[in-house]
Design brief:
Elements (H helix, E strand, L loop, with lengths): L4 H22 L23 E8 L2 E7 L11 E7 L6 E8 L13 E10 L4 E9 L9 E7 L7 E6 L28 H8 L2 H5 L10 E5 L5 E7 L4 E7 L6 E8 L6 E8 L2 E7 L10 E5 L6 E4 L3 E2 L10 E7 L6 E7 L9 E9 L5 E4 L9
Parallel strand pairs: 17-21
Antiparallel strand pairs: 1-2, 2-3, 3-4, 5-6, 6-7, 7-8, 9-10, 10-11, 11-12, 13-14, 14-15, 15-16, 18-19, 19-20, 20-21
Bound molecules: beta-D-galactopyranose.
């Protein structure tokens, strides 16, 4: 039987397609991003980098995230880092920040490390990492942020310090005169009186001397190179936006409270067309809820809330995920919104939902569900 060259080509192509399809079921290779599927690194290991961020440095993408154990009771190893030339093929670079065995250290193994974010400081030439830190054995009580620094994107990062934010300093948009004098935290939850006291900074004042709480967080570097730390404060009731020092290693003391009592977590920020846009979640722990979109002309506000930016299947539950980070592609007017689909029974098994950001005729960002897409132009 004579088999033509074309037929052979067709058989080879079909074979490649089949292999491609079986890879699609479990991997993120082949230049495609498949939100919610298991993503593997080049060695075939499942990527373990949750609640993190992606930066572009020295011609490569670096993805930092929370290392998570298979079982909730097992400790985290620290912050993992992967590198990629194309956002789909990832090589494990090791632990960018390692939890230490040293007893009593802020990042002693057994602590909780969440939402690590890395920014590059052009003045100092250093990579600066901030993350949410809970001290070993203290649940979510300490509500601290922590900072670490490195000369190279893959690290290892050196731990600098952890603590609450801006101790003893009033926010720019709350004066001592108008602040709540109410120290009665036992006030009935969610009564209009309680809500009014929250707005007047009942918890800001409670934490004034010791510093403001900082849990879910992100970082943002503006066009003028100023850095900002955006975090859920005041028992997760109110977001704060705090300016970082020129070296990004500390806070300047300038900060604002936004949406007091709004219960915003998981902030992710981007800037486009001179406007700031932020996606957040509500506060339902690991369970998904409806995302929120906010916008402002200036980073310190006034911020305005807009409708849910998600569209498509499960849009009312953020595609069953929670916002985490928005990445601007280097040198392009394109952004990727990154969400985590948490699996609280095995946080290691949580999935990544990366989706392109679209813009409507007014320039308002929105995110549509896609089973598969390519980050290439
Ligand atoms: C979520 C938060 C996560 C983690 C979790 C713990 O609301 O976004 O980062 O802190 O709560 O229950």
């Amino acid at each position: 039987m004579k088999i033509g060259f074309r037929k052979i080509l067709a058989v080879v192509a079909a074979g490649m397609l089949l292999t491609g399809q079986s890879m699609a079921a479990e991997s993120n290779e082949c230049g495609k991003i498949r939100p919610g599927e298991i993503w593997k690194d080049v060695k075939g290991d499942t990527i373990n980098a949750h609640g993190g961020c992606v930066i572009f440095a020295d011609g490569k993408y670096y993805w930092y995230g929370e290392h998570r154990a298979a079982v909730r009771s097992l400790p985290q190893e620290g912050v993992t880092v992967y590198s990629s030339p194309d956002l789909t093929t990832w090589t494990y670079e090791g632990l960018a920040l390692r939890a230490t065995e040293e007893k009593g250290h802020d990042i002693e193994r057994g602590c909780i490390i969440e939402r690590p974010k890395v920014i590059y400081n052009a003045k100092t030439g250093k990579y600066v990492m901030w993350f949410h830190l809970e001290l070993k054995g203290q649940g979510y009580g300490p509500a601290r942020c922590a900072v670490a620094v490195s000369d190279t994107p893959a690290g290892p990062f050196t731990f600098v310090r952890s603590g609450r934010v801006n101790a003893g300093i009033m926010p720019d948009n709350l004066s001592k005169q108008e602040a709540s004098g109410c120290a009665d935290e036992k006030m009935e939850w969610w009564t209009p009186e309680w809500r009014a006291e929250i707005e007047r900074g009942m918890f800001t004042m409670r934490d004034l001397n010791g510093g403001q709480m900082s849990r879910d967080m992100t970082l943002f570097v503006d066009d003028d190179a100023k850095g900002y730390h955006i975090y859920s404060s005041e028992d997760n009731l109110t977001l704060h936006i705090a300016e970082l020092t020129d070296d990004y290693l500390g806070h300047t003391g300038k900060y604002v409270r936004i949406f007091p009592g709004g219960h915003n977590e998981a902030p992710a920020l981007m800037k486009r067309g001179g406007r700031y846009w932020m996606i957040t979640s509500g506060c339902t722990g690991w369970e998904p809820n409806e995302a929120r979109l906010m916008t402002a002309d200036r980073i310190m506000g006034e911020w305005k809330q807009l409708p849910n930016p998600c569209r498509g299947e499960n849009a009312d539950k953020t595609f069953l995920g929670q916002s985490n980070y928005i990445m601007k592609l280097p040198g392009e007017d394109r952004f990727i919104a990154m969400f985590d689909k948490w699996d609280p029974k095995s946080l290691m098994n949580s999935r990544y939902l990366w989706l392109p950001v679209d813009f409507d005729a007014e320039g308002v960002p929105y995110v549509s569900w896609k089973n598969e897409w390519s980050p290439r132009k």
